Amino acid sequence: MAKSRLDYAAIIKERVSSRQMLESVGVYVNRRGMAKCPFHGDGDASLKVYSDARRGWHCYVCHVGGDATDFAMMWYGISFKEAMSKINDMFNLGLPIGERASPDEMREIRADI
After folding, report:
1. CA angle, 6 as apex, 64 and 65 as ends, to 5°?
2. Sheet strand arrangement including 65-66
3. What are phi and psi of 8, to 5 degrees?
4. How far apart are CA 94 and CA 92, in angstroms?
5. Which of 7, 75, 79, 107 has its CA 20 to 30 A from that of 86?
6. In this predicted model, what pLDDT tens digit does every residue of 15-56 receive, in sequence order?
7. Of 105, 103, 99, 106, which Cα lies nearest the Cα of 84?
8. Confidence at residue 41, expressed as pLDDT on a 0 to 100 scale
């Protein structure tokens, strides 16, 4: 059975770590997983990138965080779907995001909702 569009977020989360996403836009993450938060003029490294990919990243000053997709949404000021598409392109994941779903895929998506 083909992957539904709803699975793309999980696939991206598995394949692209928060560290990879931050570093791809020029945010330096030190060996302890700390970085200067790009969202609030950070003087000190207050953003933690966790080694456990399920925990993602978190800024202890802004009180925001999430996974690579959440970071892309904030960094680029785009929607969730646009962020998934952007990450798909940036990291050459080859997911058919944005392509029209077949009737079978649409039935599968509706069944999952």
Report:
1. 5
2. 34-36, 45-49, 57-59, 65-66
3. -60, -40
4. 6
5. 107
6. 999 999 999 999 999 999 999 999 998 889 999 999 887 899
7. 99
8. 86
- Asked whether 51 and 64 are in contact (CB, 8 A), the reply is no
Instruction: Report pLDDT digits (tens) over 85-94.
Output: 999 999 999 8
Q: How far apart are CA 14 and CA 41, in angstroms?
A: 30
Distances (CA, A) of 108 to 14, 81, 105: 22, 19, 5
Continuous segment of H or E residues that includes residue 35: strand 34-36
Residue the block writes with tokens 């909702």: 113
CA distance 109 to 3: 9
Report which residue type is found at 106. Answer: M
More confident residue, 79 or 51: 79
Alpha-carbon distance 56 to 42, whole Å?
19
> Six-digit token pair at 73?
């949404």
Kindly report the pTM of this predicted structure.
Answer: 0.81
